[in-house]
């Protein structure tokens, strides 16, 4: 039987706001990031989507996002394999120092991961979790770079033309069937109701 995976990016963090490289290092959600997670939570409620299982990257920004989305009412497992790309010594530095895309093996020299390593780590982690979960509807909270690389590992199965931009709290919806992932929807949110308190 097919399962559904909702793979979601965390809310805006202090490092996102300050344009810092943020992979395995972490920063707290901003007030706007908290609002984004609440909006995503409302999206699921309004659509009548419930989850049988939930998993998060071990990064605090992802765990906090998941807890906000589910009102802290859904038990979840923290999984290191869902972490963002490791950017080595570039962690915490200005995003201005990033090379042009695609990064490929650039960060390996600086103690980080290659694009292939990120893609293979995410693909192996998510495949194992989806194989082992008895649930039919699964939420995973991860990170923009890691999610885009996971999606590209299954690009031949996309039912979309493109991912678009992986915005904070953006969601990639996959159908998982016969050990294959089919990307069926990229879900963004309207954050225009935000008012700084």
Automatic annotation (TrEMBL):
Which InterPro entries is this protein grouped with?
His_Pase_superF_clade-1 (IPR013078), His_PPase_superfam (IPR029033), PG/BPGM_mutase_AS (IPR001345), Phosphoglycerate_Mutase (IPR051695)
Keywords, alphabetical: Hydrolase
CDD domains recorded: HP_PGM_like
Q: Which Pfam families match?
A: His_Phos_1 (PF00300)
According to UniProt, the name of this protein is Histidine phosphatase family protein
